[in-house]
Amino acid sequence: MDQRYRIPPLAALNAFAAFARTGGIRRAAAELRMDHAAVSRHLRELEHRLGTTLRDRTTGNLTLAGHTYYSQIAPLLEGLARATADIKQQAPHLTVTCAHGFAYHWLLPRLAAFRRAHPDIDLLLRPVDANTGFHGTGIETDSHADIFYDRDSTAPTTQRDIRSVAIARPAVFPVISPAGLAALGGQPHTWADLLNAPLLLEEDDSEWRLWFAAHHVPFTHVPSAGRLWQAHITLAAARAGEGIALANVFLLGDALQTGQLVRLHPKNAEADETPLGSYVLRASERAWDKKALSVFRAWLLEQVAIQATHAPETDPPP
C-alpha cells in the first residue's frame, strides 16, 4: 500500500471520534467502555501519527485541525458501522445526536421505556456539544437524527434534503439555589434587579439579551458571573450557588421539585411564560420515513405531549 494512504489504527480513530462527539475524555471512555487513560493514549498516538495537534490541552476543545479531521472521518466510521450491522443482519439502527442538557436531563431517563416498547430498534444516543451543527458531524445518513435547540435569534437556514419538526417550545426562566436566593435577600422586586445580580452565561450573553428584551428591561450590557459554554453546565453552577441561570423544563430534571433550585419571579410581575427558541428534530430526507426514525419520532412527540400535560408546578413560593 502507498505509504501516503496508510490509516491509523481503528482503536485510535474510534477513541478520537468518541472524544469529538462527547467533548471529554472521560465521557468518551464511558461511551467506549474503556479506561480514560487508554483514550488519552489513543489520542496521543493518533496525533503523533498525523503530526498535528487535534485537541487544545488548555481548553480541552478540538483544534481547527481536529474539527476538520473529525468531519472527514465520521461518515466513514459510520458507514463502516452500518456495513457491519447490515452484514450481521442486526435490528434497525438509529443514531440520535442531541444537545447535552436535553439528552442527560430529559431524554435519557425516558429511553429505557422506549427500548422496552421497541426492543427491535437499536438506538444509540450521542450527546454532542450544543454548537456542533448537524452537518458539522458529517454523519447525515439514513440512520441518523439530530435534536437541537433552535434559538429565536438564530438566522433561519434552508437545508436541502433535510426534514424537521419542532418538538417543543418551552418557556425560559431564571433559577437560583436556595442559598443564592437568601444572599439576594429574597425574590427581586423587578426583573431589572437581575442586572445587579450574578448572572451565569453560556457561551455568550445572547440568551440573557433575548430574555431581558422579551421582558422590556433596558440594558447596555449583561453582567457576567462566569461563562460556562452550555446550558446544563450553567445549571450545575447555579445548583452549586454560583449565580442565576436561565432554564427550561427540559433541562431542570427534578431540581425544582427537590428544592435544589428556586424559580425567580418578582411578586408583582406578570406570569413569566417566555419561550426563546424551540427544540427541533431533524434528519435527512432518506432517513425521515425509515422505520426506526418514524417510530422514534412518534414516541418523542408523545413524550413531549405527556410532559406538557403533566408539567410540575414551577411557580416560586409566595
Secondary-structure blueprint:
Layout: H1 10-22, H2 25-32, H3 36-50, H4 64-87, E1 93-99, H5 100-117, E2 122-128, H6 134-137, E3 144-151, E4 162-168, E5 173-176, H7 178-184, E6 200-201, H8 206-214, E7 226-227, H9 231-239, E8 245-247, H10 249-252, E9 262-263, E10 277-284, H11 285-288, H12 291-309
Parallel strand pairs: 1-2, 1-3, 6-7
Antiparallel strand pairs: 3-10, 4-10, 5-8, 5-9
Q: Can you characterise this structure?
A:
Residues 8-65 form the HTH lysR-type domain. By secondary structure, the chain is of the alpha/beta class. Among the domains are: 1-90, Arc Repressor Mutant, subunit A (Orthogonal Bundle), CATH 1.10.10.10; 173-274, Periplasmic binding protein-like II (D-Maltodextrin-Binding Protein, domain 2), CATH 3.40.190.10. It has twelve helices and ten strands. It has helices at 10-22, 25-32, 36-50, 64-87, 100-117, 134-137, 178-184, 206-214, 231-239, 249-252, 285-288, 291-309; strands at 93-99, 122-128, 144-151, 162-168, 173-176, 200-201, 226-227, 245-247, 262-263, 277-284. The strands form three sheets. It has a five-stranded mixed beta sheet. It has a three-stranded antiparallel beta sheet with strand order 8-5-9, sandwiched between helices. The model is unreliable at 135-139 and 313-318 (pLDDT under 50).
For the structure shown, list the relevant keywords.
318 residues; Arc Repressor Mutant, subunit A; D-Maltodextrin-Binding Protein, domain 2; five-stranded mixed sheet; disordered C terminus; transcription regulation
